[in-house]
Amino acid sequence: MSINVFNLPDLGEGLTEADILRWLVAEGDTVTMDQPIVEVETAKSAVEVPTPFEGVVHTLHGAEGDTMLVDQPLISISDGVESPEAPAGTGAEAGAPGAEHAASYREEELAGTTPSAELAVDEADPAAGEDEESSGNVLIGYGTSAASSSRRRRRKRGAGAETAGAAPTGSAAHTHDALTESPRLAPTVISPLVRKLAREHGVDITAVQGSGPGGLIMRKDVLAALEQVADQRMRADAAGPAPTGLAVPGPAAPGPAATGAPVPPPPPGAHAHGGPAHGGPGVGGPAASSSGAGETDSRTGLAIATREPVKGVRKHIADAMTRSRTEIPEATVWVDVDATELLNLRAELKAKDPQSTPSLLALIARFTLAGLRKFPQLNARIDTAEDGTRSITLFDGVNLGIAVESERGLMVPNLRNADRLSAVELTGAMREVIEVARSGKASPAQLSGSTFTLNNYGVFGTDGATPIINHPEAAILGIGRIIDKPWVVNGELAVRKVTTVTIAFDHRVCDGGAAGGFIRFVADCIENPVGALTQI
């Protein structure tokens, strides 16, 4: 009997893990090729994963609620044929390369570092190679073929063993040189934000001791390294001339993670970056993996009703919001707008052709797209190169994101090349992506790649807000509810339909003049939609 191990496939768009929502099969069930076997939830959407094998389910490698890494064994399927020549323990051996492959994927794809001096295909183990060829790391419609997945480079056994245990000595500069010149293992880093934080502050990530599981480098570790540098500078300033460069202490002495000692709390500013949204424990409470029911919170003295782990879509939202507020120096501009004429125009259009009447949101989106053509710096993003230099990338076209509240959390599906669509076409396209997002079936492509976001929080009965920019975009436009308000028209007081339009923008990309000009243009279009026809 041979056993095929199916690893969690690459679901695309840089997703590296998924939570098992529910198994669609059980051990002992007979499955056919391309049959859905499990429903998983990624940071983007819920997906049913089909099997590339047929046979009898031998092993389910995870339970419902577990988080699985890409390339980690998901399910083992036997062909149901007894083979006397098959050696004992075949199933366990088949799963071993999958686990090693998952570790390799986590290091290469998540760390973003591929030290070529120590990565190569392990030709001495053809059995492992065969397992990669047949492991079926493919999801129909996603990812890569089994042949391409077998090309993933694997770390040679024992590579770097001689240098891994060496303790560097001397100054931080010598430590950096030694690490640069000698072969080394890739730093254990998951979050691209951690790498970017280290790069922007001149921290050598290879010299940072990770306090996470398996030496994982967390954001608080980088912040702790920066705190050490600040302390060194203060002592140096007190003793003599200040140092000329940013030096990060090397790992000459084992840190808390290496010795097993308790990890010290991060510096005061670190809680804004390394709190529960990133998997760390909250202040004054135990780790988030515990249910917490029946416990007493040490900070407030209140009984804990429950404690839910931050995972799946909620983790993605928490990380995205934290990253936006951490990286983007945003400013906000708003204006009250008389939408009476826009409502009157739509009522006239609806009376003439009810089936082809654009929605109010589509009309405002059309005005927004015209405004982005006049102020293209708001349809942009900041890019940071490996050497730390920055550039402003402007786009030829607009992928318009639409903020959608769903049962799974906040989603931002986008309309590709929305600037090419009419108001009627925008109405249909918006309706479609909103329905897909709320159903939880939006694809990764539909939930990524937007260049500007429109947020209609008026549906919640709110007048205004300070929306958080959808990183890495440069701006987001928010629309409040439309209500009756007293308004001066031609020198006389009247009751008008008024809304508040708000834009939050990245102040690195442009200044208030561009943001103010953009929102004034949109407001003028809303107040005089007929006159705006010449510009949209």
Automatic annotation (TrEMBL):
Cofactor(s), names only, from the UniProt record: (R)-lipoate
Known EC number: 2.3.1.-
Domain Peripheral subunit-binding (PSBD), chain residue ranges per copy: 189-226
Comp. bias (Gly residues): 276-285
GO molecular function terms listed in the Swiss-Prot or TrEMBL record: acetyltransferase activity; lipoic acid binding
Organism: Kocuria tytonicola
Entry's family note: Belongs to the 2-oxoacid dehydrogenase family.
Low complexity composition bias: residue spans: 84-102, 160-173, 238-261
Lineage of producing organism: Bacteria, Bacillati, Actinomycetota, Actinomycetes, Micrococcales
Biased composition (Acidic residues): 120-134
Gene3D superfamilies noted in UniProt: 2.40.50.100, Chloramphenicol acetyltransferase-like domain (3.30.559.10), E3-binding domain (4.10.320.10)
The Lipoyl-binding domain, residue ranges: 3-78
UniProt keyword list: Acyltransferase, Lipoyl, Transferase
Segments of this protein annotated with the region Disordered: 79-184, 235-307
Protein name: Dihydrolipoamide acetyltransferase component of pyruvate dehydrogenase complex
A Gene Ontology cellular-component term: cytoplasm
